[in-house]
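# nightly structure sweep
# worker-07 picked up a monomer target from the shared queue
# config: single-sequence mode, recycle default, output format = structure tokens
# input follows
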Amino acid sequence: MAEQWRGASDDPVMTSIGQATMLLHGGDREEARNRLQALWAGIGADGDPLHRCTLAHYMADAQDDPDDELAWDLRALTAAEELGEERLARHDSAVALRALYPSLHLNLAADYVKLRRPDDARVHLDRARTASDALADDGYGTGVRAAIDRLDRRLHDG
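# output follows
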């Protein structure tokens, strides 16, 4: 998701989030989680919605417990809903807001599958599919659409 935010390099918080996610993707989940948690403490629950959305999205990925992952993904969605076009324009990312929703809902659907809550999973998977119209025909969009299809098959197969 952070790769979607052009202009984020001018933002020290987004840069710090990116550095922490490199640890996450490099396999150091505990250190990534520690850094993201420290950033969250600095941002606060009332901080910039773009920062909270991005950070919560990656913090969810750093969780080992499915309930904790769900809580962070819900925080990411809540923050995204607080984002306005004006705020995103400062990151040249107004289009990215619309492209963000499929991924956020897909993550929530996957969380609910892990928690054996298929009805809740289906609600968010349907929202992800509806929102996927905003995705570009690029690698990111293709990947999100494919993940939606995979999860849909998984839910259908039971």
